[in-house]
Amino acid sequence: MLLKQIEYFLKVVDTGSFSEAAEQCFISQSAVSQQVKTLENELGLQLLKRHNRTFSLTPAGELFYRKCTVLLNDLDGIIRET
What we know:
This protein is mainly α. It has four helices and two strands; from the N terminus they run αααββα. A two-stranded antiparallel sheet has the order 1-2. A hairpin with a 4-residue loop joins strand 1 (about 50) and strand 2. Helix 1 (about 5-15) packs across helix 2, helix 1 (about 5-15) packs across helix 3 and helix 2 (about 20-25) crosses helix 3 (about 30-45). The radius of gyration is 13 Å and the shape is globular. It starts with a helix and ends with a helix.
């Protein structure tokens, strides 16, 4: 699992859109989608329930989102302090 995959997942959830997340991360929409799917495969669970052009968080996705938001905020603080 890569930190970038987590960042992409969080950005997708924050923006509510794979394409908006891709634009903000300066990569293609398909790359964001692929990285989130790879993250799900590595975790062995589904984080997002995909609908035609929308998505919703699964219960596991909600937990992962909350915990990873804290994790990245902590990491940012560690980097600033160092």
